[in-house]
Amino acid sequence: MARGARIGHNDRKSGGAAGEEGAITTDRGNETQLFIPGLAGLYKAGTCIAYPLIRITVGLFLMPHGAQKLFGMFGGYGIAGTGEFFGTQLGLNPGWLWALVVGLVEFVGGLALVLGFLTRPAAAAVVVVMAVAVFRVHMANGYFWNNGGYEYPLMWGLMALAVFFKGGGQASIDRKIGREF
Questions:
Q1: Does 162 share its domain with 116?
Q2: pLDDT at residue 140 tops 80
Q3: Are 135 and 153 a contacting pair, CB within 8 Å?
Q4: Which contiguous run of DSSP H or E holds residue 103?
Q5: Is position 42 within any domain?
Q6: 108-151-99-173 Cα dihedral, nearest 10 degrees
Q7: 167: phi > 0 → left, psi -120 to 50 → alpha, else beta; which?
Q8: All residues at 6 or more sequence positions from 146 whose CB lies less than 8 Å from its CB, including other chains
Q9: Residue 68 and residue 97 in one domain
């Protein structure tokens, strides 16, 4: 088999040394043969955007939920309406305070994830909010989101947990300033 490029974090260490054509290099440096070798170039090209895409998507998808709670946008009820729901339906009192906290975590924390600024504290806050949503609001409704279940907040909580472990990454303000939590 002809020699070709490998994909993975170890490319820099090995200087892009040759491996089997159509193989990828895992984080551990092991080569794995691709079923479709012609896709190796696509995978290599996309590797640098894979993690920022996840981090930015998590942040962008949370921000509208925060805007609903804080500003009443997108059919939301603002702090007053959300606070009333939190207090009377969920028993989270004072409701307005929890509406403010959750709205800020989703909106400002989401923006922080998009920018990769204070990434780990923002991700940790999202994990906590989603854990409360799973156990306090959605668990009784079962798994599936279309029945009000915990599927959606669990997924976002786990995605935020992954971002917490990884940090801001290459394409982040945290990396640009050279400091992370």
A1: yes
A2: yes
A3: no
A4: helix 95-104
A5: no
A6: -10
A7: left
A8: none
A9: yes
CB atoms within 10 A of CB 46: 12
Q: What is the pLDDT of residues 11-55, one digit of tens each?
A: 333 333 345 567 766 666 677 899 999 999 999 999 999 999 999
Is residue 118 located within the same domain as residue 164?
Answer: yes
User: Among 169, 179, 160, which residue's Cα sits nearest to residue 52?
Assistant: 169
Q: How many CB atoms lie within 10 A of CB 58?
A: 22
Same domain (yes/no): 108, 154: yes
What digits encode the pLDDT tens for the residues 78-130? 999 999 999 999 999 999 999 999 999 999 999 999 999 999 999 999 999 99
- 20 DSSP β-pair partners: 3
Tokens representing residue 118 in the block: 């204070």
DSSP class of residue 172 equals: S
For residue 160, pLDDT over 90 is answered with yes
Instruction: State whether 55 and 31 are in the same domain.
Output: no
| Domain extent at residue 26 | 3-35
